[in-house]
Amino acid sequence: MRILLVEDDLMIGEPLLDILRAEGYAVDWVRDGELADAALQSQSYDLALLDLGLPKRDGMAVLRALRGRKQRLPVLIATARDAVEQRIAGLDAGADDYVLKPFELDELLARIRALLRRASGRAEPVYEHMGVSLDPATHEALVDGKPVSLSAREWAVLEPLLARPGLVLSRQQLEEKLYSWKDEISSNAVEVYVHGLRKKLGAALIENVRGLGYRVPK
Amino acid sequence: MKTKPAPSLKRRLMVFLLAAISAAALVQGITAYRTALQEANEIFDYHMQQMALSLGGVNGGGRGSQDDLELVVQAWTAEGLQVFQSTARAGLPQRAVLGFADVEAEGRRYRVVSVQTGGQVVQVAQELVVRERLASRLALRTVTPIALMLPVLMLIVGWVVSRSLAPVERVRAQLAKRAAEDLSPVGEGGLPAEIKPMVQELNSLLGRVQQSFTAQQHFVADAAHELRSPLTALNLQVQALQRATDEPARAQAQNRLESGIARATHLVEQLLLLARQEADGSEHLPVALAPLLRQVMTDLTAAAQARRIDLGLLHTEALSTPGNAAALATLVRNLLGNAIKYTPEGGRVDVSLYAGEAGQSALIRIDDSGPGIAEADRGRVFDRFYRTADAAAQADAIPGSGLGLAIAKVIAEKHGARLTLGQAPSLGGLRVELGFRSATRIAP
Questions:
Q1: Closest chain A residue to the Cα of B261, Cα to Cα
Q2: What CATH number should be reported for the domain holding residue A11?
Q3: Residues B434 and B311 sit within 8 Å (Cβ to Cβ)
Q4: pLDDT tens for residues A2-15?
Q5: CA-CA distance, B28 to B21, in Å (whole number)?
Q6: Tell me, what's the pLDDT at A3?
Q7: A101 and B239 in contact by Cβ < 8 A?
Q8: At what angle do helices B196-243 and A105-119 cross, to 10 degrees?
Q9: A6 with A102, same domain?
């Protein structure tokens, strides 16, 4: 899953970036409103974590522009603006959730998971399909009830596929889930991870649709 | 514990006014009574005389006595032969002396007038007891209206006093029923001229209290808001440290946590400094300005050298100004620290101290070769937590709490000094001037 982190404060952005990456998300971090606008227009994200008090362009303006372009990705506002009116304005401008700084990290991660889950059209917290279950909260993967150890990258490839069985994701789309801008992408990375996943979870779980990409059969 | 009740304006007015009215009525009553008595006497005398004169021509005939006045009339011929006596009981002596006299006869006192007319002597007498009774009845009738008016007057005075003091009571009631945080002005309509200025002063005080109350509320809200970011950072840095799996990641997380703590500490210290300066009421003693400048510049030399900034003292005077030395040092340090912080590496910062006319005032000037502050921002940079867009954009390179200039301004205000921003003519950057209204030349 790919997340855009919009946060101007270096001291908040740095640890948050590390933590989100450790959670298995591909994260891009921008530090002002204009860059956030540009990133949202050029890249495809599964979620935006948005601060409001930003240099150059306020977070609210970024949010309105985003919704004005009919982009539907979930937006979670994380800000120090605590007045009720501001929270209402944020939600009314198109945010899906609003957390106040200082937030509890575990709560923030849970909210991110909830928003991603809702965006993929599910209500249940655990992905379960063809005997494979993934729990994004604990990062526990089970095959027929037995725990299997997956690397963060393998997880990042499997999760979007398992989230919507039947949907074909191209190699490029999967690469976007894996890497943020600055990462060096090796040309066959996705193939490598798919291979690893098939070995651990069974070859039938991930189908190769020639010329199009990969899918988990419905 | 018993406390003496506060003196009541109303009670005092009532007591004094009613006492004065009573005394005046009493004096007036007594005077009126005595005047009436005296006048009654004169009227009776006149009456008796007229009667005697008129009887002279009658020659013993006609009406001999006047019942209501209880007059006794006697007439004699020139030879002393009594020709008429109105009543037998009187037994008044025949008076040879003409005119008025008080006479005693048979244990009673009489007022007597004798008149000689047409060969007769007519004597008219009236018993004094009777006369006094009649006179006092007359006098009492004069006094009665005064006595009747007294309670009416008292009621009117009481009403007027109560009515006049009603606005005071109204203001009191208005103040009594308001909530503790209600600092809105008290209604000034319909107040008498004596009370209006007091209420106006009260309202202006309430306004000032409201203002400082609001300022404090804003300050607390701002402070709470500003503390959220460093707290969020600390929280995340601790989490990152806990989650770090290898040694380099742990070392990095620890470094970040330390700088996060340093930042939060700095912010809290600045907040405390600001609050302390705002509450500072310390005595102002003469502070020598040139040594103070040198001390602060020495303290900041390392910071200037680290950024290869040429920091120099161009001009000084031997001047002192009344103030708090520590606070003034903080003020100069904040101004000079900003100049060093925002001037690009290799730049220049000039400090000078000038004397005003006859050494009665002093001016500290700090010029730098930095980017300056846009004119539109110059008014706002002294606001708490305000950082210009430029300062916010380079917040990583130049960390700041947004409180330095706010603290400087508070200290300047406490010293009655004027803090102005402008453009440094030769260096092109910011010019900060700190003008002290009073200064004294001292031995260098």
A1: A11
A2: 3.40.50.2300
A3: no
A4: 999 999 888 899 99
A5: 10
A6: 95
A7: no
A8: 80
A9: yes
Q: Are residues A106 and A136 in the same domain?
A: no
Provide the pLDDT for residue A20: 93
In this prediction, the answer to ipTM > 0.90 reads no
- In A, minimum Cα distance to B262 occurs at A11
> What percentage of chain A has pLDDT greater than the value 70?
99
As a CATH number, domain B12-147 is 3.30.450
| B438, B418 contact by CB (below 8 A) | no
Interface test with B, best of A7, A8, A11 (most B CBs within 10 A): A11
The predicted-structure confidence for B292-312, as pLDDT tens digits, reads as follows 999 999 999 998 999 999 999
Tokens of B7: 């003196």
Is A63 a residue whose pLDDT tops 90?
yes
| Nearest CB neighbour to B229, from listed A12, A16, A18 | A12
Pair (A7, A111) in one structural domain: yes
Smallest CA–CA distance, residue B366 to chain A, in Å, is 29
* Helices (H), ranges, chain A: 10-22, 33-42, 59-68, 84-92, 105-119, 152-163, 171-178, 189-201
Contacts of A133 (CB under 8 A, 6+ apart): A126, A127, A141, A142
The single residue listed with the structure tokens 């891009």 is A28
CB atoms within 10 A of CB B196: 14
Determine the residue type at A67: R
Cβ pair A18:B237 closer than 8 A:
no
β partners of residue B258: none
CA-CA distance, B325 to A97, in Å (whole number)? 51
SS (H, E, C) A128-184: EECCEEEECCCCEEEECCEEECCCHHHHHHHHHHHHCCCCCECHHHHHHHHCCCCCC
Parallel, antiparallel, or unpaired: how do β-strands A26-30 and A2-6 relate? parallel
Whether A9 and A115 map to the same domain: the answer is: yes
Nearest to B60 by CA among B84, B77, B80, B78: B84
Q: Is B347 helix (H, G, I), strand (E, B) or coil?
A: coil
Q: How many domains does chain A have?
A: 2
Question: Which residues in chain B have their CB less than 8 angstroms from residue A80's CB?
Answer: 225, 228-229, 232
State the fold for domain B280-441.
Heat Shock Protein 90 (3.30.565)
Residue A182 has a pLDDT of 66
Residue corresponding to tokens 């198109």: A94
